[in-house]
Amino acid sequence: MTEERQNIGLVRRRRGPVRRLVRLTFYVLLVCMGITAAGFLYFADQVASMQPPAAPSADAIVVLTGGFQRIDQAVELLKSGAGKRLLISGVHPSTTGTQIRRNTQSSADLFKCCVDIGYDAMDTIGNANETANWIRDNGYQSILVVTNNYHMPRSLLELRRANPHISFIAYPVVNSDLKSRNWLRNPMTLRTILSEYAKYSVAYLRDWLGARPQSGLRTEQDNTTPADR
Q1: DSSP calls for 96-109
Q2: CB 197 within 8 A of CB 44
């Protein structure tokens, strides 16, 4: 009986540290989940609160392709004189300037004088680097950034990383009012915001760690060897 009690005590002593470790892991995960949820809600609230400036003005305008009504809005800003020139960044190589001009119902003269079409960017990092090259070539100091509201935080993060001395002014395109509708019950909206929050968090963590991302440019991808890829 004494030996049996000793064995039971030994088992309990062995289980003790394991249980404490499991309990600690559970609490750490719980805290991490809470921080993640709070961060997501803060991000969503920030996105929902974004509004375009009443009187937008900058040296030039850049629009990042890939979302609803972005190019149309950017062209309207150019027509109104909010910037001297427009860069449409991240255009697919198969899309022509004529197609974009017709879709935005713009004149050929406007596109000939004041619109540049960037085919080099493949993602948001590429947009930032393509924009950096364009800014350097033209000597601009302030840029009006046109993209969807949910995409704006990550866009500004990447643009400011690639262009630390340039003033970027957000002009969000608001195509979903997150404050006036229960977007948590809308699977498409919820998926979009969650995806963008995850991408923004990764980009922020990457910059915090000092990691160097890929350029996101087609020209640099094409110049790499198969082994580099």
Answers
A1: -HHHHHHHTT--HH
A2: yes
Tokens of 159: 């643009």
DSSP 119: -
Decide: helix, strand or coil at residue 132.
Answer: helix
**Lookup result for tokens 């005590």:** 9
Give domain status of residue 225, yes or no.
no
- Please give the residue range of the domain that contains residue 148: 60-209
Which residue(s) pair with 115 in the sheet? 86
Q: Which residues contact 166 (CB under 8 A, 6 or more apart)?
A: 135, 140, 141, 142, 143, 159, 160
159: domain CATH number is: 3.40.50.620
pTM over 0.90: no
- The tokens for 204 are 């922020």
94-134, pLDDT tens digit by residue? 999 999 999 999 999 999 999 999 999 999 999 999 999 99
Total residue count of the chain as it appears in this document: 229
Which span out of 23-27, 39-43, 79-83, 183-187 was modeled with the highest average pLDDT? Answer: 79-83
Count of domains for the chain:
1
CA distance 176 to 44: 12
Beta strand spans in 43-183 (E): 60-64, 86-89, 115-118, 142-148, 167-173
Is residue 38 situated within a structural domain?
no
| Residue 71 maps to a domain | yes
Is residue 177 in a domain? yes
